């Protein structure tokens, strides 16, 4: 499908005027008309109702318009990126992450972008379930995630970036905030939980804590994203157990954080990457990763 034809179609669809679309694109009006006719022939559908006075989109035209815009935007983005990479002005890296790594990732990227300002970073934030799937499909250059999310087939190499303790999170000024944590009182509270299908690793850790105290939490809400859990706690709807780092990254002034004691419940996080990468920027990124996280072990193969 011709990109130029799509651009002309978008112009007419937005202006609802063939003459004005021709002026805007600095081409003769017959060229606009021919382009629309070519598109309609290819699609096998009429895109515009046209009279001597008015132009309007058909239902087929209305349906096609957002897709045409996406195609043109993507083509322009790809063209711009190829031009920049070819000229040596920049590069591109894709990163998939989960919200509980936000603070560490932001700190690292601040260092990396200062050193390599012309390398573009595209960040996709996933739930636990979609992050695990992304790591299986090798669609990203790097992954910041829980260690337990790594595929078991050894397709990824990784370094441990940090470990984060789990803590009890309650609304600001809650009665549990004062003194040593009373687990009996804790489990009398309304609990807000992360969804097990979307974040099985965190959910499992929380249930492990509950099992250690021979209880089942009184769950009133479940959310797919940990930051949604934190928002609900901050709004006074209940209490939860979350990674401590998340409370620093989101809404720290609306909640109180209570340590779980000396049991050492924590989640280990990693930066992982495909063993075979064709992106020249990956090597640069990895060098900074190894420099930034020097005290944590680097591992190959199965986690």
Based on Cα principal axes, name the global outline.
Answer: elongated
Low-confidence stretches: none
Secondary-structure element string: HHHEEHEHEHEEHEHEHEHEEHE
CATH topology of the largest domain: D-Maltodextrin-Binding Protein, domain 2
Q: What portion of residues belong to β-strands?
A: 15-25%
The largest sheet is: 8 strands, mixed
Portion in helices? 40-55%
Structural class, judged by helices and strands? alpha/beta
Q: How many structural domains?
A: 3
Annotated CATH homologous superfamily of the largest domain:
Periplasmic binding protein-like II
Q: Could you name the CATH class of the largest domain?
A: Alpha Beta
Count of strand segments: 12
The average pLDDT value, as a whole number, equals 88
Descriptive account of the structure:
The protein is elongated and about 80 Å long. The chain folds into 3 domains: 3-87, Arc Repressor Mutant, subunit A; 91-162 and 272-299, D-Maltodextrin-Binding Protein, domain 2 (3-Layer(aba) Sandwich); 163-266, 3-Layer(aba) Sandwich (D-Maltodextrin-Binding Protein, domain 2). Strands 3, 4, 5, 6, 9, 10, 11 and 12 form an 8-stranded mixed sheet that branches. 29% of the residues are buried. It has 303 residues and is of the alpha/beta class. Strand 7, helix 8 (200-212) and strand 8 form a beta-alpha-beta unit. The protein has helices spanning 3-15, 18-25, 29-43, 59-87, 102-115, 128-137, 183-186, 200-212, 226-234, 244-249, 280-292; strands at residues 48-50, 55-57, 91-98, 119-126, 142-146, 156-171, 190-194, 218-223, 240-243, 255-259, 266-274, 298-299.
């Amino acid at each position: 499908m011709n990109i130029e034809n799509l651009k002309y179609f978008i112009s007419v669809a937005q202006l609802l005027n063939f003459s004005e679309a021709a002026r805007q694109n600095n081409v003769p009006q017959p060229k606009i008309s021919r382009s629309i006719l070519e598109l309609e022939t290819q699609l096998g559908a009429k895109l515009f109702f046209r009279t001597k006075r008015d132009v309007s989109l058909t239902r087929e035209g209305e349906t096609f318009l957002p897709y045409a815009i996406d195609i043109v935007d993507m083509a322009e983005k790809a063209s711009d990126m190829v031009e920049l990479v070819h000229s040596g002005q920049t590069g591109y890296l894709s990163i998939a992450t989960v919200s509980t790594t936000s603070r560490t990732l932001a700190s690292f990227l601040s260092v990396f972008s200062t050193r390599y300002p012309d390398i573009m970073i595209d960040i996709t934030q996933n739930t636990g379930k979609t992050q695990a799937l992304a790591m299986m499909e090798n669609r990203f250059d790097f992954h910041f995630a829980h260690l337990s999310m790594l595929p078991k087939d050894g397709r990824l190499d990784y370094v441990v970036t940090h470990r984060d303790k789990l803590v009890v999170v309650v609304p600001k000024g809650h009665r549990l905030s004062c003194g040593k944590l009373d687990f009996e009182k804790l489990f009398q509270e309304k609990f807000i939980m992360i969804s097990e299908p979307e974040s099985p690793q965190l959910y499992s850790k929380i249930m492990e804590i509950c099992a250690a105290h021979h209880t089942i939490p009184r769950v009133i809400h479940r959310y797919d994203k940990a930051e949604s859990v934190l928002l609900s706690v901050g709004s006074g709807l209940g209490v939860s157990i979350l990674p401590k780092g998340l409370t620093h990254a989101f809404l720290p002034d609306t909640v109180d954080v209570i340590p779980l004691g000396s049991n050492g419940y924590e989640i280990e996080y990693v930066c992982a990457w495909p063993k075979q990468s064709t992106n020249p920027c990956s090597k640069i990124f990895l060098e900074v990763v190894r420099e930034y996280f020097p005290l944590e072990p680097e591992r190959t193969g199965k986690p």
